[in-house]
Amino acid sequence: MPAIREMVHEVRVQIDLNRCIGCGLCTQVCPVDNFEVREVDGAKKAFTTEGANERCFCCKACEVVCPTQAVVIFEGLK
Ligand code: SF4
Ligand code: SF4
Q1: Beta partners for 5?
Q2: Using CA positions, which residue lies closest to atom 2 of ligand 1?
Q3: Contact (CB, 8 A) for 14 and 72
Q4: Which pLDDT band, with edges at 50, 70 and 90, does 31 fall under?
């Protein structure tokens, strides 16, 4: 049976693609490889990797390092 914290606590790793400039800093700092940079329509953009929400432990390094505030870690109740 999952811990109560896992039943009620939700984490979402969100990237605003309009803000992202594809610098890749988030891919370098995340300890659990939650980001990858891909080229879309000729522009580099960051995307979350599969299972990112489950792996994220809210260290917030990605939020801190992102130069354009494109990454937001949402923590809330389910
Ligand atoms: S650090 Fe921010 S701007 Fe740079 S690739 Fe990641 S989300 Fe995009
Ligand atoms: S908060 Fe930490 S663990 Fe979560 S995505 Fe950002 S860098 Fe990775």
Answers
A1: none
A2: 66
A3: yes
A4: very high
